[in-house]
Amino acid sequence: MAVIGPREIAAAVRVLGRGDLARYYTAGDSETTKFENELASWMGSANALALNSGTSALICALVGAQIGPGDEVLVPAYTWVSTAAAVISVGAVPILVDVDESLTIDPIDIKARMTDATKAIIPVHMLNLVADMDAIAAIAKEHDLVVIEDACQAIGVTHRGRPTGSIGDIGVFSFNQHKNIRCGEGGALITNNPKYYARAGMYHDVGSYQRSEQFDLDEPAFVGVNSRMPELSAAILRPQVKRLDKQMALRRKRRAMVADRIDELNDPGMRIAMHHDPAGAVGIAIAFDDPDHAARFGETKGARRLVDTGRHVYTNWQSILSKHPQHPRLDPYQWNDRDVSYDDDTCARTLEILARTCTVELAPELPTPAFQLLLKRLG
Ligand SMILES: Cc1ncc(COP(=O)(O)O)c(C=O)c1O
């Protein structure tokens, strides 16, 4: 199943033919606005805001929830570097939290790392796997924390019947080249909270000069950046949203085939890793007892050992580890009255788990014969 096919090409040609490449010049017939409406509807959310990347979506979400200097935000130690970088971009401090065998943020460790400065949690649904949203929602409610769901790697996935991204206060998505749906570079956020939506909308459009009526905000205008999505990107994404259910069905089927293959191997040293919604699972992680065994498995074409995946592992986040601000007076750590560290011991458990866990490619663009070959190679 191609992710980019004839419908996306026709959509791009339609926009190019019309020549209106940005939302503000489309005289009320904007692809970006239609994409936002269709995304919000698929998610069952009141509002969607189209953006130019997942990183921008995280930043706009944090601005939306008014997270900033002096605040701490809990992020998992296994995620793409952007999750933590976005926190620093708004002047707050990312606090690293271990993942558990599900490869998502561990609710027990969330509690251990919380302080009075904690304002938000960013659970990340890595590799189409889902975080333990019930436990996270309970903690957030008890401690009055904002939950920003990073569903950049999991658009279309559900957690106990609810789309990922629609469960927390704000959900963010990426549409870069590697994501379930894509336009090269792109992103979006969804939220039911009108204030978060209005603040994020204000920020993504340099203070919302172009559509001030859209973002009716009960506070003075503030300056933002330009994170707007181009019309071409929105047009390419629209047919992909329509095919999301079909894509998830294929991923689910492939996951079951990999799980059967692992069963057949009958190897006591490997198993399908814990999942927070096994009935709806569309991503797969395979846990090993022995890291060397995982390393050998990870060399199979189409499989990967997770500790070897570069900047998804916090010990490779050089820009974060350096704690070097873009300007000395913009140092987010100056507001904290404690030492925040990011060394090998900070989340040693995460490193240990990633060293003995692999994933297998289930993506729809992998042709069926190639997937069959991958299944054979696993044993
Ligand atoms: C979990 C996660 N968060 C955030 C991002 C950032 O998205 P983008 O590359 O669109 O800025 C990514 C992208 O790789 C991601 O995987």
Describe the structure.
This protein is globular. The chain has 2 domains: 6-244, Type I PLP-dependent aspartate aminotransferase-like (Major domain) (Aspartate Aminotransferase, domain 2, 3-Layer(aba) Sandwich); 245-377, Aspartate Aminotransferase, domain 1. It has a 7-stranded mixed β-sheet, sandwiched between helices. Strands 10-11-13-12 form a 4-stranded antiparallel β-sheet. The chain contains 13 helices and 13 strands. The longest helix is centred in the C-terminal third of the chain and has 22 residues, at 244-265. With 379 residues, the chain is α/β, with parallel strands linked by helices. A hairpin with a 2-residue loop joins strand 6 (158-159) and strand 7 (162-163). Pyridoxal-5'-phosphate binds next to helix 3 and helix 4. The site of pyridoxal-5'-phosphate (PLP) has 14 residues, from helix 3 and helix 4.
| Small molecules bound | pyridoxal-5'-phosphate
- Helix- and strand-based class? alpha/beta
Low-confidence stretches: none
**Biggest β-sheet strands, sense, barrel:** 7 strands, mixed
Rg over C-alpha atoms, rounded to the nearest angstrom:
21 Å
How far is it from the N-terminal to the C-terminal residue, by CA?
Answer: 26 Å
Dominant shape: globular
Write down how many β-strands occur, each being a DSSP E stretch of 2 or more residues: 13
CATH architecture descriptor name of the largest domain: 3-Layer(aba) Sandwich
Order of helices and strands: HHEHEHEHEHEEEEEHHHEEHEHHEH
Tell me roughly what share of residues is in helical segments: 25-40%
**Individual helix count:** 13
